[in-house]
Known about the structure:
Two copies of one chain form a homodimer.
Chain A: H1 19-32, H2 50-65, E1 69-72, E2 78-82, E3 90-96, H3 109-129, E4 136-142, H4 155-160, H5 166-170, H6 180-184, E5 198-206, H7 211-215, E6 219-225, E7 227-236, E8 240-241, H8 253-270, E9 275-285, E10 291-292, E11 295-304, H9 307-328, E12 331-340, E13 343-344, H10 347-360, E14 364-369, H11 374-378, E15 384-389, H12 405-423
Parallel strand pairs in A: 3-4, 3-5, 5-15, 6-14
Antiparallel strand pairs in A: 1-2, 2-4, 6-13, 6-15, 7-11, 7-12, 8-10, 9-11
Helix pairs in contact in A: 1-3, 3-12, 8-9, 10-12
Amino acid sequence: MTTEETGARASTGGSAIDASRAAAFLADFATMSAFGATERGGVDRQAATPADNEQRRWMQGLLEQHGLRVEYDRIGNQFGLLELVPGAPYVVVGSHMDSQPTAGRYDGAYGVLAAAHAVFAIADELAASGETPALNIAVVNWFNEEGSRFVPSMMGSSVYTGLLPLEEALAVTDAASVTVREALAPTGFLGEGDGPVAACCAEIHIEQGRLLEASGTTIGLVTASWAASKYVVTVEGEQSHSGATVMEDRHDALLGASLLVVFARELADRFPGVLHTAVGKLDVYPNSPVVVASRVRLLLDLRCADEAVLAEANALLATELAAIEQRASVSLRVERSHEWGINPYQPEGVALARSVAAQLGYSHDEIKTVAGHDSINMKERVPTVMLFVPSIEGISHNEGERTSDADALAGLDVLTGVVRRLAAGELRAP
Amino acid sequence: MTTEETGARASTGGSAIDASRAAAFLADFATMSAFGATERGGVDRQAATPADNEQRRWMQGLLEQHGLRVEYDRIGNQFGLLELVPGAPYVVVGSHMDSQPTAGRYDGAYGVLAAAHAVFAIADELAASGETPALNIAVVNWFNEEGSRFVPSMMGSSVYTGLLPLEEALAVTDAASVTVREALAPTGFLGEGDGPVAACCAEIHIEQGRLLEASGTTIGLVTASWAASKYVVTVEGEQSHSGATVMEDRHDALLGASLLVVFARELADRFPGVLHTAVGKLDVYPNSPVVVASRVRLLLDLRCADEAVLAEANALLATELAAIEQRASVSLRVERSHEWGINPYQPEGVALARSVAAQLGYSHDEIKTVAGHDSINMKERVPTVMLFVPSIEGISHNEGERTSDADALAGLDVLTGVVRRLAAGELRAP
Lengths: 430, 430
């Protein structure tokens, strides 16, 4: 990536946000980060846990203090509504406040707070000028983006956009067999409607990689999401005594799974920078010290900046599976659970964001997102702008996740500009 | 292994046990196998669970019906006492009745029932002849041999022999934080004494391998246990986003663990038939679909028929650890939790067992045990005889574990002969 503009304000430089607005934002962010805070400076706010619930109540108070009306839809998405044009659709701007276990403070939460403060500023401007925008504006905190307690991820935005049936989502259970419906019911966050009608959408998020930092760029203009193939793999072996059984008689499911984990890394290494692979979740049965494992279930992801490379990687994987079955004397059952191509954001949205960043004098460049975001769902329905700010050392899904205050404020500045123009009707759905 | 004697009775041949005794044994074994029975023909009777408890109550009734007095010691070992010589020490004969999850019917349970039926027969003989033996006889069902619910394994015999402090064992917790003491207290199996004083010991067990079957041998005369090194390995990486983080920035604990699992297998393949290696238990943190694992904890065993080979394997492992740390950008913390050499059973006991098997006309041969058994603890204290019968296809720690009725009865026959001679004082501790 090359930086399009190495403008007046460097990544580590100052911000155009005035001092009192900057101070209010940073103070609110510090308050927010105390919900579910962990000892090592991170957070644990998995969806519909007490920490997530308390933070949502705090956010409701903040939105109401600034005159927004708070509403919940039937999957627990939280909306702060600024209705200035009765009956008009909304600019929906926000992200998510739930987190992974032992996660960082910025992932999602930064984007919701930036959306709220952007809308507060615009509401003040409109009140002062007496102008009426073309569209109403809604701050959103999507329910369960992370998908760690309740699978799948991006649950709230998937239901909102009709990509996941409501009843299916409400029936999902966590590890303790609690359903989404049961977890949400006592919180007061299970509403009755479908939420505001969206005309367009904006989201800002930390990059969770280090491309922006490496090139000294403050604002990432997200043009597309990477292609991805996601697999659920079950390795079937045979239980046997882990001491007494002679090696050639073993059908070791954990050996099969381990060969696959190692191969996934080798596959990524064959396509440097273009292909990311990962196994994050792996469960062993019976997982006993003296028993050869009979079954391992794991989730394998391939994410790729190039659809042709992804097809090649999938083919190489298919070939390797047979070799692993033979090497470990196991059988592999492989289901492809997700499959998507390079998925572009609307170019008009990228152009609008570029124009705002340039006007404000922040360095900016186009970037693709490897991670999933709620905006990926939203762009299937309405014109959507996605912005990134730098992650220090690219660290994310980690308690040490950080973004500099200067970059966080620059992102707020650009997001405010983008929402202002979206509210003026610049990019509404046809 | 070569078979010393291919005598009158082949592995699949008949038995010298008379028909009514054979029928009673097989009927009791069928009854026993119903406790904790699984759908696929196995059992799940982890220590101090309801299935284990019910089976122990049934065994108590069986022992009492045959005139034995039942007693429990302070770690819940179950003893059936035949006291014929007031004040004399005991021949302690038995095995364990707890199991792994989804385990087979024979592992341990066969040895306890064979011990009980051997003692019933000897008691009848002595009553008929009016003779007095040199020693008393105790049937034993050791508590928690498997170590799947409560670690370590061989807990009951370790406490009995003074190799594990009682208080330490009682304080061990299971995955739900229930202590051994709390699990045993409501069962009535937590006694107040130290159990009978042992003069010598015998145990019969299924082989859990296929050497006996392969050579057509009915009775294994166990001469020693394999040497072993057991490790607890913690792989420390760093949490990060499993999609967005560029590959070269990852510190993937699961990759490090997988490289180790694969290497352990390669190590065994370098010393075919002499070295067995295994990773049976492996836990991933945070084990989330979109997070690179920051920590994996696994148990790695090396078991070896040759101490020099084991030393070489340990050295190769130590070298490989550094390579894995570099390859996966992780750090490995390795603790050696157990270390023992080739550990012989008393040769006089092997000779006694050989003489009994030969006299009865069963094919027999010397064999080493790779698996741990309670008799390995007992032989540290008193002369101990260990016998094996064949496992069909070597299958064990598996619901499909089987031993033929003919072999099970042959084992009962030889065990009866061994216990008869032990009770006569042939091998008592000096």
